[in-house]
Amino acid sequence: MGLSDLVYRLYERRIRRRLDRSRVPGHVAVLMDGNRRWARAFGAPTSSGHQAGAEKARQFLGWCDDLDVNVVTLWMLSTDNLHRSEDELVPLLGIIENLVDDIASTGQWRVHPVGALDLLPDRTATVIKQAADRTRDVDGMHVNVAVGYGGRHEIADAVRALLHEHAAQGASLEEVAETITVEGIAEHLYTKGQPDPDLVIRASGEQRLSGFMMWQSANSEYYFCEALWPDFRQVDFLRAVRSYTERERRFGH
């Protein structure tokens, strides 16, 4: 172990010891950004960046579990990403399939799909659905896998589902209009029944949400980290959690 590694290890332990565990976020959502830039920096294929990002996601879930986080949302693939070239998209989907299958195979965590599965290739959608089915009765940390996810798309899907539900019951247009409330839409989101994210983390230095959980993150706390996702370390995660525990949450006030 090098000197810098030792220093970081000691720093990690110090932060961990001083964390107020009673204020750890219950739901952490993360934008796993920077995989392509990471690969480019090494002159490596883009797929190697996505693979490194998948390995980091596995580590990240372990870190969250260690702090007794209840829900984690991993944004793996946006609806916009579905328009990337086939040369990049096909390997990326394979990496995502393996990651989701690995998460389910641990038997520790419950997998929940968050995204428009109908937009995904059949194989990818099937892997995600099977992972959710296999872990349905698991009592551990809840892991949302956001694949084929877009915030605007989610809200449109929620409103559409709400309208279909009431139309099927024979409601008139006026009656349906009365049901379009904040609560009604929330009940049809991909994350229905879950708490909204307390902390949203974005790697790679970008300071924007790019439409991620637009509805759910209205009162979330944000933490932006300069590290590209494959370089995101446990000490970066602990800093994010420490920052969260030190804030006074105002919930929009």
TrEMBL record:
Superkingdom of source: Bacteria
Cofactor or coenzyme needed: Mg(2+)
Molecular function GO terms recorded: ditrans,polycis-polyprenyl diphosphate synthase [(2E,6E)-farnesyl diphosphate specific] activity; magnesium ion binding; Z-farnesyl diphosphate synthase activity
Keywords: Magnesium, Metal-binding, Transferase
Residues binding substrate: G34, N35, R36, R37, W38, H50, S78, T79, D80, R84, R202, R208, L209, S210
Keyword match ATP-binding: no
GO cellular component, one term: plasma membrane
A GO BP annotation: polyprenol biosynthetic process
Free-text cofactor note: Binds 2 magnesium ions per subunit.
HAMAP family: ISPT (MF_01139)
Family of the protein in this entry: Belongs to the UPP synthase family. Z-FPP synthase subfamily.
Function field: Catalyzes the condensation of isopentenyl diphosphate (IPP) with allylic pyrophosphates generating different type of terpenoids.
NCBIfam families: PRK14828.1, uppS
Name listed for the protein in its UniProt record: Isoprenyl transferase
